[in-house]
Amino acid sequence: MEVKDVHHAYRRRVVLRGVDLRLRAGTLCGIVGENGAGKSTLLKVLSGELRPTRGTVRHSGRFGYCPQHVVLNDALTVRQHLTFFQTAYCLADVRYAEEVMEVLGFTGYADERTSVLSGGTRQKLNVTLALMHDPQVLLLDEPYQGFDWDTYQRFWDLAARLRDAGRSVLVVSHLAYDTERLDELWRLDGGLLRPDEAGVAA
Ligand SMILES: Nc1ncnc2c1ncn2[C@@H]1O[C@H](COP(=O)(O)OP(=O)(O)OP(=O)(O)O)[C@@H](O)[C@H]1O
């Protein structure tokens, strides 16, 4: 994914002031920044949900986006969500989604309506839906919110596996824990992305 000189403003509130980013294949990349720095705005621009006021975003291949706020249909079960997205992604089966469910530890909830799921389990489904078509570029906005410690660790192992399989994974968070798991760490500050070397593996 290639991002060049991206600007975005909500009316007169300028949030992004010329963001450049190159997300290479086989890279696990993090973006951190304070609350309100514009991280979600940037991901919405990268995913195409928002149009930049200036600049370009280019990517090729399958694309996955996990938004910060869970978007589920409370009338449907977990399995029905998988079927719905299977159709949307034109997948032959949901075996990979089931593998991800196993990794994130919520297979036992397959037949539950999402309205009765805990916040953490809803988030597990949110993440699963974003990556069940094995996207080449995966954008995750605060993906581990609500995860218990064990799931949090398994999430990072999964992200590392995707990176090792040649996928580009971008994780956005206001918390810069576990930065040693990342290949690149960027800080969004003042509407610009700057390298943040703290703790990134050499
Ligand atoms: N739809 C909108 N209309 C107007 N202003 C908005 C809108 N969405 C976000 N903003 C403003 O843009 C700025 C950046 O918001 P954004 O949600 O991108 O930040 P963030 O870094 O993701 O924050 P957080 O860590 O709290 O999730 C904030 O000042 C926010 O109030």
Give a written overview of the molecule.
This protein has 202 residues and is an alpha/beta fold. The protein has one domain: 3-Layer(aba) Sandwich (Rossmann fold). Helix content is 30%, strand content 27%. It contains five helices and nine strands; from the N terminus they run βββαββαααβαβββ. Helix 3 packs antiparallel against helix 4 (119-131). The protein is globular, with a radius of gyration of 17 Å. It binds adenosine-5'-triphosphate (ATP).
- In the CATH scheme, the class would be Alpha Beta
Radius of gyration: 17 Å
Q: Overall mean pLDDT score? A: 93
Remind me, CATH topology? Rossmann fold
From the N-terminal CA to the C-terminal CA, the straight-line distance is: 22 Å
What binds here, in terms of ligands, is: adenosine-5'-triphosphate
Portion in strands: 25-35%
CATH architecture name: 3-Layer(aba) Sandwich
Provide the low-confidence segments as ranges: none
Q: Order of strands side by side in the largest beta sheet?
A: 5-6-7-3-8-9
Structural class: alpha/beta
Helix content: 25-40%
Number of H/I helices:
5
Give the beta-strand count: 9
Describe the sheet with the most strands.
6 strands, mixed
Q: What's the domain count?
A: 1
> Rough shape?
globular
**What's the order of the H and E elements?**
EEEHEEHHHEHEEE
- In CATH, what is the homologous superfamily? P-loop containing nucleotide triphosphate hydrolases
InterPro entries: AAA+_ATPase, ABC_transporter-like_ATP-bd, P-loop_NTPase
Organism: Streptomyces viridosporus T7A
Pfam family, one: ABC_tran
GO molecular function: ATP binding
